[in-house]
Amino acid sequence: MAPAVVRHRSSRVRGRPRVDRQASDAQGIDLSPLATHEFAFDDAAAAFEQSRDASSSLKVLLRP
Question: Three-state SS for 53?
């Protein structure tokens, strides 16, 4: 492939949040401490940048 060719990558949202939430609720497990950062939806760009820092981010949440 020529060096001038630009390759495009996209992010995927994976998981089964509803199923995971139901399972944790049924077992009485509090998953909220795993959310290390929370941003308003208007700050989505900052949230994305924070999520890229694996040394300080485990789960970054966007709130409406």
Answer: coil
Flag whether 11 is in a domain.
Answer: no
Q: Is residue 25 part of a domain?
A: no
Q: Is pLDDT larger for residue 5 or for residue 63? A: 63
With a cut of 80, say whether residue 43 has pLDDT above it.
yes
In the predicted model, what is the mean pLDDT of residues 1-13?
A: 56
In a domain, 36, yes or no: yes
Alpha helical stretches, state H, 1-64 = 17-27, 44-51
User: Does residue 46 form part of some domain?
Assistant: yes
Q: Which helix (H) or strand (E) holds 61?
A: strand 60-63
